[in-house]
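The authors assume throughout that readers already know how a fold can be written as discrete tokens. In essence, backbone conformation is discretised, so a fold becomes a row of integers matching the chain in length. A single example would do more here than another paragraph of explanation. For illustration, here is how one protein appears when written out as sequence plus structure tokens:

…
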Amino acid sequence: METTIDLGGVRTWYAEQGEGEPLVLMHGGLSDARYFGLALDALAGRFRVLTPERRGHGHTPDADGPYTVDALVGDTVAFLEKVAGGPAHLVAYSQGAHLAMHLAVRRPDLVSRLVLVSGAADAEGFLPGMRPSAEGEPPEVIADMYAEVSPDGREHFPVVVRKTVDLFETQPPVTADHLASIRARTLVMAGDDDIVRPEHTRFLYESIPGAELAVVPGTSHVLFLEKPDLCARLVLDFLTGDPVPTMMPIRRAGA
């Protein structure tokens, strides 16, 4: 099922597939719900999967004004309350993961379990030269994907790029103290050749109490496109199972 809902004046598109506990997939900047498409059937076999697209992304038209963490987190809160009907599992990718961290800190009552995929707490989490920029032309394939479904038309894409870059450059960091306050059981995922620095991925893992870590071999920043079956299995195992008591705990020894 595909439909739209009004979230405080933002006519937000989303798709729904499957039955069971709600699982919300949060896409990255300059991408849309299609990022998770190759893993969708596997996830929907166990959950009621909801794939909203943020303002100015995918099928959702842009809204006036800049993109801000407050506005985008507010959109997600409204979506969880109106569509998911309360707390949900979140699988959040890249910039979506950054927003999900803020959400988990601000509204822990709405987050059941949390999967952070190739996310960064701040701009320093990315490798040098890998931060988004509004200079020059964006990759043609990204512009083509935008134009394929956007109600705003291809000519609006540079506006979305500029707003997305501005958000990246101005968004408040998620600090170690913020991460330490996250109470949702969390899985941190990244590709072994990701644009997020490996030490930053480990920082997220070590800062969130009880977090688990999955580095997907042979993948980059778009791991759900490169190894969707493996990524889906890792997510399903995490969301449907309980922590296994380990025989030689180090980081979790005092848990």
